[in-house]
Amino acid sequence: MKNCFKEGMISPEFIANSIAHHQVKTTIGAHQIFLGQVRADLIDSKEVVAIEYTAHEEMANKAFHVIREAAFEKFDLVCMHIYHSLGVVKTGEICLFVFVSSKHRKDVQLAIEFIVEEIKKKVPVFGKELFEDDSFVWKENN
Judging by DSSP bridges, how do beta strands 30-37 and 94-102 pair with one another? Predict the structure, then answer.
């Protein structure tokens, strides 16, 4: 089972390299990418400066695996990558990277929506929204 976690933010270089590695897969006709970014939300008049992500990694990786298998069964996909951050990710930085590939665009468009919604509902990843004054609130997934 694949480890879907990366420590800290998911860098633009990592994302670019992932895309570049798919140029040799000439049966692919479409890619779809979802990038989750930490927002500077205002909560009780305080601005979020980062989110600290924690997870029950073994359970979360199993959940990612189940979602991955369900997506491959439901859609005609060639390739899929899911990465989620652990640790502190500052506002403006990427914390979730989902990358799917298929022969046709419709499959990737539908698959990305399915995968991201399943991640939000079923993967035990927890976020503490951090404020500049060192206070925090636990993030609720919508």
Answer: antiparallel
Looking at the DSSP bridge assignments, the partners of residue 100 are 32, 80
Report the run of H or E that residue 106 belongs to, with start and end: helix 105-122
Strand partners, 31: 101
pTM > 0.90:
yes
Cα angle 57, 120, 116 (rounded to 5 degrees) comes to 105
- For 136, the token pair is 């925090």
What is the signed CA dihedral for 7, 12, 116, 58, rounded to 10 degrees?
A: -20
Contact (Cβ atoms closer than 8 angstroms) between residue 85 and residue 9: yes
Buried b vs exposed e over 3-30: b needs ≥16 C-beta within 10 Å? ebbbeebbeeeebeebeeeeeeeeebee
Location of structure tokens 């899911």: 82
Residue ranges and CATH numbers for the domains of the chain are 5-131 (3.90.1170.40)
Neighbours of 113 (CB within 10 A): 12
% of the chain with per-residue pLDDT over 90: 93
